[in-house]
Amino acid sequence: SQTIHQWPATLVQPVGSPLSLECTVEGTSNPNLYWYRQAAGRGLQLLFYSVGIGQISSEVPQNLSASRPQDRQFILSSKKLLLSDSGFYLCAWSEGSSYGYTFGSGTRLTVV
Amino acid sequence: ILNVEQSPQSLHVQEGDSTNFTCSFPSSNFYALHWYRWETAKSPEALFVMTLNGDEKKKGRISATLNTKEGYSYLYIKGSQPEDSATYLCASRGDAGKSTFGDGTTLTVKP
């Protein structure tokens, strides 16, 4: 069966520090991978998605970036965090447009 | 409609009440409509994936309908229970598998 792992679960980082959140999927190959963020009191906002290794599409201009170094690994990064980067980050995968998402357990990021 | 909109934003009902929520989405470039349940301290879990106009899906006491021509979907919960308390998200799936989510409807069921 397919599983998705996301870590860390919580993170408190100072403004200006770097960020690296990692997501891995097991039990499937060539999944579509996504990073979403929920800011306080809001819904889920798509940040990045990837349909294959090295293929990253950005939805929202910001100081975050994403990479997919391996088929089932998706990384969200920042060189310098801003206060506005605080939120709940979710990684997700799906098999394609006709399928729902399976979400990771999420990362609560607080930038102080 | 340019975005996915859900109403109401929140709902408080008594145990045993039946309830429903609305999701409105752009009817153009439509691929699929998804409903998710998001319980506190957990990840969103898929409830339904709906693709065809007139689709009706059911899982236990929860059901959903889809109208792609006018761009709306309804989620119904019959005989609400406290364990149904959660935020219910809908998402319109477009090209490349990207989904646009609504802000959700938060349901609280009082015993």
How are the SSEs placed, and which strands pair?
The complex is a heterodimer of chains A (112) and B (111).
Chain A lengths: L2 E5 L2 E4 L5 E8 L5 E7 L5 E9 L2 E4 L5 E7 L2 E6 L8 E8 L7 E2 L3 E5 L1
Chain B lengths: L4 E3 L2 E5 L4 E6 L7 E7 L6 E6 L5 E4 L2 E6 L4 E6 L8 E8 L5 E3 L3 E6 L1
Parallel strand pairs in B: 2-11
Antiparallel strand pairs in B: 1-3, 3-8, 4-5, 4-9, 6-7, 7-8, 9-10, 9-11
Radius of gyration of chain B: 13 Å
Main beta-sheet strand count, sense and barrel state of chain B: 6 strands, mixed
User: What is the percent of helical residues of chain B?
Assistant: under 10%
Query: What is the count of DSSP helices of chain B, taking H or I runs of 4+ residues?
Result: 0
How far is it from the N-terminal to the C-terminal residue of chain B, by CA? 37 Å
* Beta strands of chain A, count: 11
Considering residues with a beta carbon less than 8 A from a beta carbon on another chain, report the largest interface and each chain's count. Answer: A-B, 25 and 24 residues
Radius of gyration of chain A: 13 Å
Approximate shape of chain A: globular
What descriptive keywords fit this protein?
heterodimer, A: 112 residues, mainly beta, 7-stranded mixed β-sheet, 4-stranded antiparallel β-sheet, 11 strands, B: 111 residues, 6-stranded mixed β-sheet, 5-stranded antiparallel β-sheet, 0% helix
Description:
The complex is a heterodimer of chains A (112) and B (111). Helix content of chain A is 0%, strand content 58%. Chain A starts with a strand and ends with a strand. Chain A is globular, with a radius of gyration of 13 Å. In chain A, strands 2, 4, 5, 6, 9, 10 and 11 form a seven-stranded mixed beta sheet that branches. A four-stranded antiparallel beta sheet of chain A has the order 1-3-8-7, with no helix packed on it. Chain A is mainly β. In chain A, a hairpin with a 7-residue loop joins strand 9 (87-94) and strand 10. By secondary structure, chain B is mainly β. Chain B is 0% helix and 54% strand. Chain B is globular and about 40 Å long. Chain B has strands at residues 5-7, 10-14, 19-24, 32-38, 45-50, 56-59, 62-67, 72-77, 86-93, 99-101, 105-110. The model of chain B has no long low-confidence stretch (mean pLDDT 92). The interface between A and B is medium-sized, with 25 and 24 residues.
